[in-house]
C-alpha cells in the first residue's frame, strides 16, 4: 500500500479549532439539550457558568457530528430546525445509556430524576441541576410527564416539581418552595425524610 492509500484510510482527527476544549461529547450533548429546552444559548451559559462562545462551540461540534444544523439563530431566540427533534431523541437515548452505567453500582440511587410538567421548570432548579452535574458523579436528569407527584410516588423519580395551593401533599412527602410569583407557587416535592443524595441535593439547592 502506498503512502497516499495509507493516508486516505487513516482515521480522521478533527483539528483543534473543531474541538471544544476540555469538554467531552457527553457534556456537549447535555448543553445541546439545554439549548433546545430553553431556546437560548445565553441562558444556558448563565445557568451552567460557561461562556456563550463555549456553549456555541458545543452546539456547532454536535451539528458537525450529526451532519446538519440543529438550530436557527434568530433575533427571538435559538429555534430548533425541522430535522433537530430526531437528533435530540438520539442524544437523549445516548445520555440515558451513559447515565445508566451508574446502575452497575450497588447504590440504591444511581441518578436523581426530576419529574415536571411542561412549562413548570423554574430557572433556579435548572441552574442547581447544572451545577450538580458539573460537580457530582451522580447525574441529575429531567423527566417531563403529566403528573410529577404520581411519578414520585411510583418510584419513577426522586423529586417532583408541582404547584402548591396550600392543600397538603400526600402523606410521606416533604416539599419546599422553588418559585413564588404573586399567588402562584411551585414546590420541589420529595420523600420525607430525605436521605443520601436527595438530602445532599436539597442542601446544595439551599445554598444556590
From TrEMBL:
Keyword set includes Amino-acid biosynthesis: no
InterPro entries linked: LysR_HTH_N, WH-like_DNA-bd_sf, WH_DNA-bd_sf
Cross-referenced Pfam families: HTH_1
Domain annotation HTH lysR-type: ranges: 25-81
Single GO MF descriptor: transcription cis-regulatory region binding
Gene3D superfamilies: Winged helix-like DNA-binding domain superfamily/Winged helix DNA-binding domain
UniProt keyword list: DNA-binding, Transcription, Transcription regulation
Family to which this protein belongs: Belongs to the LysR transcriptional regulatory family.
Name of the protein in question: LysR family transcriptional regulator
Organism: Tsukamurella asaccharolytica
